[in-house]
Amino acid sequence: MSEIMTPVAAKTPSSEEVALIKKFLTDTTLFLGPDPEIMQNHDLMPRTAIEDACMKEVSDAHTIAKIRDRIQAGCDEGYEMVEQMGAAPGAKWGDVITGVYSASGDLAIASAGGVLIFSALVHHPIKFIIKNWMNEPTVGVREGDGFIHNDSRYGNVHNTDQSMILPIFHEGKLVCWVASTVHEGENGAIEPGGMPSMAESPCDEGLKMCPFKVVENYEIKRDILTFLQNSVREPKLQYEDMKVKLFACLRIKQRIEETLNTDGPAALVSTLRLTMENVRAEVKRRISEWPDMTVRTYIIQDSTLRENCVVKINCQLTKTGDRLIFDFRGSSPEFTNRATNTIVAGLKGMLAQVFLCYVWPDLPRGQAAFAPIEVITDPNSIVNCSYDAPNSQSLMSIFTGFTAGQHAVAKFLYSCPEKYTKVHAPTFNMINTFIWGGVSQHGETLGNLCADLNGMGAGATVDRDGEHALAPIFATMADIGEQELNEEEVPFLQLVSKKMTRDAVAPGKYRGGQGYTQMVATKDSEQWGFMTVCQGAKIPPMQGLFGGYSCGAYPLCKVKGVDVYDVLLNEPEKFKHSIEEIMNEQPFEGASYTTHHMGMGFEISKRGELFMISQGAGAGYGDLLERDPAGVIRDIEEGLISPGVAERLYKVSFDPATLAINAEATAALRDAERKARLARGVPFKDFVKTWTQPKPPTYLQYFGCWGDDVGTLYAGSADSARDANAPKPNYMRHPKDVRIEALEARLAALGALAEEKQ
User: Fold this and answer.
1) For the Hydantoinase B/oxoprolinase domain, which residue ranges apply (predicted)?
2) CB neighbour class for 698 (10 Å; exposed up to 12, middle 13-18, buried from 19)
3) For the chain, what is the mean pLDDT?
4) Measuring CA to CA, how many Å separate 240 from each of 447, 479, 522, 559, 652?
5) Measuring CA to CA, which residue among 481, 445, 512, 554 is closest to residue 192?
6) What pLDDT does residue 1 have?
7) CA-to-CA distance for 573 and 579, rounded, in angstroms?
C-alpha cells in the first residue's frame, strides 16, 4: 500500500528574502533588451514628490510662461545649430529635433521646427537610462556624461536616426535632460544610406545602439567613437555629427543654467511639469468637444519593397467622452523577414504628428499632446512588430498609419464646432526620393539620400487647393535641399528636379498639391548606385476626402543602354524634361525603357543611365464636378494637368487654342455626368450583395483582416487565415527563388510541349 504524502503549505518569503531574490535576478540578468514596460507606454510619468513641491512653490502663470519661452528659444537655437553645422543631408534640411525632458524622462518642450515625430519617441531611451544605468556602478549618470542611441527597439523611428542625450544637474541633483536627434543616414546596414529594404532580420540593419555612454566630462570618448566610425561607411560624418549634436545640447544646457541662476531650480522643474500637465488637460478638454462617434477607414500598401502584394492598415477611431481611441486591430501581421514593420512607438509618433501639425498646431510641442490618446493593436502586427522582426523600412507602415489616422480625424473635425485648423485631406505620404551610395568622385565611400522626400504635396482643405511639394508629413518645417550643393560631394546629377509632374493630380473640388519629377544619372564614378524605397506604384497609398480622389500610382522608370551625358553634349535636342515624354517618345535609339515598382533594392548604375521617379500628390477634397472651371484652366496654364485629362476628369468645355471656357457646355457636361452617376448607382444593400465576398480572392496575395472581422487575419492567401491574438511567423520567399521557380515551370512546360510535337 502506497504512502499518502501530506502536502506542505508553501512558506511565504520574508521581505529580506524577496529583496535577495530581486538582487539575484538583477545581478544575473544576461541582457538588458528593449523594455516592454517602457516601450508600450507613451503617457507621462507620474508626478514626483519633488515636482509636486516645486509646483507648490512656483506656479505663477507669468513666470511659467517666461521660463517656457526661454527654454523654447534655447531648443530652437540648438535646432538651428544642428541644421547649419550638421554634415548629414538630414541635418541640413531639417530632419532634426532638440528638446528638454523632465528628470523622469518626459519630453516637456521641443524645438518648433524639425521632426516632431521624435517628440513621442526619444523619451523611451532616457527612461531606459534612468531605469538601468542610473544606479549601475559600472555605468552611472553623472554631470558631464552624454549617451548615444539609435536602435528603434529602445525608442526611435528607425536605426538611421541617432540621438545625443545629456543629463543636466544643479548643485549635484538631476533636474532635467536635453537631447538632439538627427536623421544621419548611413549606419553600416546591408545597403548604403541607412534604410535597407533588403534587411531580413535586425542583424541586417546596421548599428543597433541601445542607450550607452559615449561622453564623459563633456568630451566624446575616442575609443567608442572609433568603434562607431569603423562600423559605418562614412566615418567622417559619424564624428562630425556626434560633435554637432553634443554642442547643440550644450547650448541648450547653457540656456537652462541661465534659468537656474535667475529663477532657481524650483521654477524650472515646475515649468516643465506644468507645461506637460496643462497640455495634457487641454487635449482631453478639446477631445471632449468632439462628437461621440466611430469612424472606420483603411490604407493599402502595395508591396513589401521586395514583392508586390496587398497589405492592409486597418483603423477605427472612436471618441467617447474625453477618450480618443485609435484601434489598428485587423492590420496585416508583421513580416518576419521583411523590413516594412514598425514598433508601436513609431506608429504613435506619427499619430502625434497628426495632432501637433494638422489638428492643434497651437499647442506647445511635446510628448503631452498625444499622452492621453489611446492606441490598440494586435500583437506582432505590422504596426506593433516583435523585437525580432526587421523594421528599417518602418516608414512604410508609420506613414500609411498616419494617413489612416489623418483621414479618420478629418471626419471628426468636420463635425466639431470649434476648429484650430481647417479640415484637411491627407497629405502625400511616401518618401519618393533616391537613396544613394558608393565611391564618390573624390574617392570617399558615402551613403545617404536626396532631400526630395521632403517635397510631399499637401492635401486640399475645405476652401482651397493643396500646396505643391509643401513639406513631409513628419516635419512640416523642413527643406528639400539644394541639389547643386549636393553635387559637389556626390558623382551624380539630378538632370530634372523641382519640376511639377504633369497629370500627377489628385482631383476634387479642391485638388491636392502636386509633387515633382526627379531624374538622376551617375556621371563621375564606376562604383555608384541608387535605391528607391516607397510604395504606390500599383495602388495609391492614401484616400481622398468627402468626394475628393487620391493621387494616381506612379512607377519607377529606367532607361538603360544610353549615356545621357553624351546625348546632352552631342544631340541635346533629344533630351526631354519629363518622364511622360521620355517613356512615350523613347528618343534614345537602342536604349531599353522599363517600368518597375518603387521598391528598387540597391542597384549599381552605369554612367548616363536614367532613373526617373515622381512625387505623388496630396489628396483632393470634395466632388470634382464642383471645381471652379477657372481653377481647371489655371492648372492647364501652369502645366499641372493636360487639356485632355482636365476635360475628362472635370467635365469642363473650353477652346483648345485660347482655353476660353464655354460655360453652357460645361454645365451640360456636368449635368450629364451627374445623371450618369445616378444611372450607374444601386442601393447600398444591393451593392454589398455583389461587392462583399467572404474571403480574399485566391489570386491575391493579401495580408490583414477581410471586411469587419478583425479577429481573423490573412497572411498571403485565402487559405492562410489565422487568429489575430495567436501570432505566428510570416515568412516571405526570396523574390529570386520565386522567379527561378516560375522560369523552371515555364521551361518544363516548353519541354513537355516539345516532346508532344515529337
Assistant:
1) 61-623
2) exposed
3) 94
4) 15, 21, 27, 37, 56
5) 445
6) 45
7) 16
